[in-house]
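2024-03-11 09:14:02 DEBUG pipeline.ingest accepted 1 chain
2024-03-11 09:14:02 DEBUG pipeline.ingest length=126
2024-03-11 09:14:03 DEBUG pipeline.predict start
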Amino acid sequence: QVQLVESGGGLVQAGDSLRLSCEASGLTFSIYTMGWFRQAPEKEREFVAAISSGGGVRVYGDCVKGRFTISRDNAKNTVLLQMNSLKFEDTPVYYCATRRARWSESVKTSLQYDYWGQGTPVTASS
């Protein structure tokens, strides 16, 4: 049974930093590409970041380049997303996803991923 469990979401204000984590189980983590996506109400799911199985290749969505960093620890079956300089538009639900297919440009497309976590919300404080 493959499971992806995200954590780390919460209330934030503009300029804050936050770190999300995703722990995987039920798969050979070290051979899977890992990705982060986000989705706001009435919006399409948006690519945030992806990292290759060995961690040697990382790509980011245009809206988060220079502010977010993806990393992974294959010994702990965990992928992290460090988010800095948060903006109001960075506050939807964030989803962790994984795919076994070899690295390609399709890592930016949500339909190319095989398994998804339940999501963790990042919410603007009021």
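2024-03-11 09:14:41 DEBUG pipeline.report The mean pLDDT is 95.
2024-03-11 09:14:41 DEBUG pipeline.predict end
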